């Protein structure tokens, strides 16, 4: 029985563990936190955090969220859902909590994993036939190294550290950033703090939960039809038509959406009209506007300043526009960094390019690195599903039943995608190239075809084209038998490497 090591017990690690356990593999999950959840784990979640997508989209295919959850569940509810998932599928007993991976090296056909158990205060080395890294996009909170920050007499936090609204109570707060967490915290601080400043480099497009206060966002953002309006790296026939003869229709669609958002959020009155096109921004960083955010900016409860911090000096924060603030608390909504400090350098250098982007086929593996895969490095607008499909893909890779091209063609695809991200769609390089949005269906279709499975649950193409994503469809598709016989396995496949 092959022993599978999984690093991380967030949603991607849990989906991967479940997929391997179901196929009879021996699984060990290493998790540095004290409970499951990853970014949703309580110690990493800020107060009031909720999902960007709805309850029905942010669910695994065979384990729907409870029907009594709100349409946009809270962070605590998502963590409870993931804990229930782990218990239901027998994953909990495979997890070693409060344990960090300190080293990972390839030795004589196996991966040697050094770990440190903080609970028991001891080190150990484990051996695995195959390792899945599931640390995902949000690995390490990032706080910029502002000049003079060490002299600041106030407090500097990351948004993930704002676990309770009392941290903000009666304080003068400056929030840095314009991403989801930054605007969430600013909206919260407008009510809880003495005063709130929002410092941002440039305004970004945000979308409402309901467009025009009527249409749920899922109908405009989560369908094959909506995806077709993006200039994809691999195009369907309809996409080729849209981005040649149909370009005027594409232009009109995006300009109309921008006009709707400007009117609904009163962006001009807020001084927050983005200077870039919305289609150039939509990716994993697309934010859903917190309820009341733009209203609080407009009335001055959130004082928004389009500038950046120049330096700190004692209790003062000097801004690039010449203004000086004296906040008690500076909160950085400046995202996360991805890091694999435990992986030995020769293999890390094959996986991460000189530009910092991950060089992974299907965002899952590099053929020059034996017996190592990644799940959750294909984050999307519904990462639960894309991670689940990637986990099933990885199991079949280990089993040697995938219908993949040869190693040379795989490397060509990796090179093509790296170049495409750089020249055709720069926003796709964010998160080190690990975001597959907005091409969610394109990515899912590729993984399903590699597994020899269908990509649609019904034969009614118009319905499949316009309906929002439905994870339940993939439960049906994943359970289908693979009708095509697997091709001969190339020499780099784990089935050939592991004896």
From TrEMBL:
The superkingdom of the source organism is Bacteria
Query: Does the record carry NADP as a key word?
Result: yes
Q: Does the keyword Flavoprotein apply?
A: yes
Q: Which keywords has UniProt assigned to this entry?
A: FAD, Flavoprotein, NADP, Oxidoreductase
The molecular function GO annotations come to: flavin adenine dinucleotide binding; N,N-dimethylaniline monooxygenase activity; NADP binding
What residues form the membrane-spanning segments?
none
The family annotation for this protein states:
Belongs to the FMO family.
- Put simply, this protein is called K+ transport protein
Identify the species of origin. Answer: Chitinophaga barathri
């Amino acid at each position: 029985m092959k022993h599978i090591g999984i690093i991380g017990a967030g949603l991607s690690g849990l989906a991967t563990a479940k997929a391997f356990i179901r196929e009879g593999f021996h699984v060990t999950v290493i998790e540095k936190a004290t409970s499951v959840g990853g970014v949703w784990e309580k110690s990493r979640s800020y107060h009031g955090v909720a999902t960007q997508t709805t309850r029905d989209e942010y669910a695994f295919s065979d384990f729907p969220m409870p029907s009594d959850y709100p349409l946009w569940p809270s962070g605590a509810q998502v963590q409870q859902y993931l804990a229930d998932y782990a218990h239901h599928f027998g994953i909990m007993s495979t997890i070693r909590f409060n344990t960090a991976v300190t080293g990972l090296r390839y030795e004589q056909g196996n991966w040697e994993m050094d770990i440190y158990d903080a609970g028991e205060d001891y080190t150990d080395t484990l051996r695995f036939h195959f390792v899945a890294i599931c640390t995902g996009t949000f690995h390490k909170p990032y706080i910029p190294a502002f000049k003079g920050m060490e002299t600041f007499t106030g407090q500097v936090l990351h948004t993930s550290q704002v676990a309770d609204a009392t941290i903000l109570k009666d304080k003068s707060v400056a929030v840095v950033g314009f991403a989801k967490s930054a605007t969430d915290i600013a909206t919260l601080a407008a009510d809880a703090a003495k005063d709130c400043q929002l410092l941002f480099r440039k305004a970004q497009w945000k979308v409402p939960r309901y467009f025009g206060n009527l249409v749920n966002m899922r109908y405009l953002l989560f369908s094959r039809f909506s995806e077709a309006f993006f200039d994809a790296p691999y195009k369907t026939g309809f996409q080729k038509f849209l981005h040649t003869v149909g370009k005027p229709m594409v232009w009109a669609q995006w300009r109309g959406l921008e006009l709707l958002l400007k009117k609904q959020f009163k962006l001009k009155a807020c001084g927050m009209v983005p200077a870039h096109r919305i289609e150039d921004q939509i990716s994993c960083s697309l934010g859903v506007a917190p309820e009341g955010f733009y209203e609080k900016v407009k009335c001055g409860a959130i004082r928004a300043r389009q500038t950046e911090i120049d330096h700190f000096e004692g209790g003062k924060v000097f801004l690039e526009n010449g203004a000086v603030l004296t906040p008690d608390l500076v909160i950085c909504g400046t995202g996360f960094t991805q890091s694999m400090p435990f992986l030995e350098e020769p293999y890390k250098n094959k996986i991460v390019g000189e530009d910092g982007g991950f060089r992974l086929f299907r965002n899952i593996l590099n053929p020059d690195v034996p017996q190592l895969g990644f799940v959750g490095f294909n984050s999307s607008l519904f990462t639960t599903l894309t991670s689940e499909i990637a986990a099933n893909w990885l199991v079949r890779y280990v089993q040697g039943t995938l219908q993949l091209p040869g190693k040379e063609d795989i490397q060509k695809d990796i090179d093509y995608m790296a170049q495409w991200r750089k020249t055709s769609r720069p926003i796709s390089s964010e998160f080190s190239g690990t975001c597959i949005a907005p091409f969610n269906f394109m990515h899912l279709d590729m993984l399903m075809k590699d597994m020899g499975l269908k990509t649609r649950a019904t034969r009614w193409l118009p319905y499949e084209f316009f309906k929002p994503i439905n994870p339940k469809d993939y439960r049906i598709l994943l359970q289908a038998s693979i009708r095509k016989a697997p091709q001969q396995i190339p020499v780099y496949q784990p089935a050939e490497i592991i004896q």
